[in-house]
Sequence to fold (706 residues):
Amino acid sequence: MKRLFTFSLLLLFLASASFAQILTPVKWKFDVEKINDTEFKLKYTATIDKGWTVYSQFTSEDGPVPTSINYEEMSGIELVGKASEKGAKKEGMDAYFGVNVVKFLADKPFVIEQKIKVKDASKPIKGYVNFMACDHEKCLPPSDVDFSFKLPKSGTIADSKDDASTTDETAVIPTPTDTSSNAVASTDTILGTIASNSIGAIIVGDKIDQKITSLKETFKSPLSTCGGVEEQKEGLFWTFLFGFIGGLLALLTPCVFPMLPITISFFTKDTKRKGWVNGLIYGASIIVIYLLIGLLITIFVGPEALNRLSTNWIANTLFFVIFIAFAFSFFGFYEITLPSSWSTGSDRMADKGGLIGIFFMAFTLALVSFSCTGPIIGTAIVQAATKGEYLGPFLVMFGFSFALALPFGLFAAFPAWLNTLPKSGSWMNSVKVVLGFLELALALKFLSVADMTNGWGFLKYELFMGLWVLIFAGMTLYLFGFIKFPHDSPIKKLSPVRMSFAVLAGISVIYLASGFRINDKTNVYSSLSLMSGLAPPAHYNFFITPQDVDASIKTKYPSYSKCANNINCFKDYFEGMSYAKEVGKPAMLDFTGHGCVNCRKTEELIWVDERVKKILNDSVVLISLYVDEDKKLSPVYTSMNTDAKLRNVGNKWADFQIVNFEQNSQPLYVMTTNEQKVISKPRPFVEGIAGYLEFLECSLKEARNQ
Fold:
């Protein structure tokens, strides 16, 4: 079971994307109670939302992640005995994990108490609680919550969070233009200043509060009725269809296609009725097997993990390596297979006959065809998860398995149809090779995300598009017969089908090459609509010198630069808002990300419109905040509102978005006055220039009336 759980977490790691919902079902509080002059009791109290559970420190490690108290600084204390637990405890076999677990329910607070002996009261007690929360449908990824205790001098109870507010380290981060007026010396003064729309963030010790009261209040009740649209998503049906297409492609591979007549002939040995019944059971078994995999991913995946992994440079670099491995496997240089003992054991179970035998026949097919289906499944899961649908992995596996199972059921019911199928042959290997070229192209997408979020700067627009041109040129040459791979047979004559695909690949090369045209209006490359969200943004390039920004503004506000389509923008909220106040213009907040597909679609399909571009350049101050920017922050702060560690620039702006606008999905466009009041309801991703232009014009009209 421990191996199964590890494998499930690995599958979780292969699925990633942004998601609008923020789940925080467990709230922690930390107290210290004096027992005598040398002994104290540390108390860790979790308040659990109804329907959720947290797992004991002493539950089995073969199942969910046990709660643990981890001390990073405890040189001044000594632990006395083991920590105790109390709350609404329940123990028994868990259906998800298949092991006996000890968990705590929401009926009462879950309390961990640890007795300590003090050796040096001046030294801090710091660390973090690691825990995992689950409900009846899903489990969230393990989370850390930091704690810091200050030992009280009396027998009163002191909350570690309250301790922070008594520190003498109190300051505000002012904007460059407000440095003198915002300099303060007490927490009360800071809160009063922020409430009156000071452009700054509160810092208390190592804590930071980016909440802007006026933004938060007017977000719920904007100044106008503009906006009010819902985010466009591809929908569950399209996710299912994506998996279905993957299943059809898998059918055409040499690992699966030859199995059709062999398997159907086995079912038609008996009566016609029994043959199609067994065929339907076989098809249903295929669906069940793949659905179980999708279900495991869906159970263990969490929206926050998807959001992190979809832009995390380590995850995206790993996806790049995996897709390259898939590609060369399809080219025929090696095979990615599962251990032979698995298929041998499954085959023995298939010999037993009956329902169990048919099920294990289907399971054997899944195992032995893995070298062909595995790369397709992996690609489908990653792509589906990055679309932002929580049920994506489950639905894509349903579509994949349904397409794979359908022919077995149909041909078992109507065996005469087998005569209409093309014969097995070298064309099946050609399908694999073409898929290999597509895997190479998709691999570059993930490396591009890692490059942009980590600021490496080597896979810019020209190199990315150039590699895609070479990949599709290679596919064209292969289909015309000029390139061969290890398992290819000699081509005596091009079939009409192969010729058609070769011509289509050649047209793709010409289309991709047209992406190097320069747009005279934006002074960057003309982005291709079909490459929007795949290729890096056109302004992220090697050879086109970016237009200069006003040097006097750049000196005063270092984040001032050029964004998409050479539009002037700020990449720091406090700098941008201060400038907006200085010039008397409203601001548009653009919560975006380097790995955000829909952000690129907006920039490349909507912001290129001359009317939209003119408004963004001349009538508003554009502030683009990248929530996946990996540039490190020093020092590292902890958010007062979310308790999250803000280790990089992306963390900072993600926290700012969550705290003030209660969302963590991108893109999000917020029009505000320079007094930090939200003018209209924030706009998520919606296709179409007309609606976006109306949103801008309506918001500007309202801003002029203020």
Residues 1-21, 154-198 have pLDDT under 50 and may be disordered. The chain is about 45% helix and 20% strand. The CA atoms of residues 225 and 248 lie 47 Å apart.
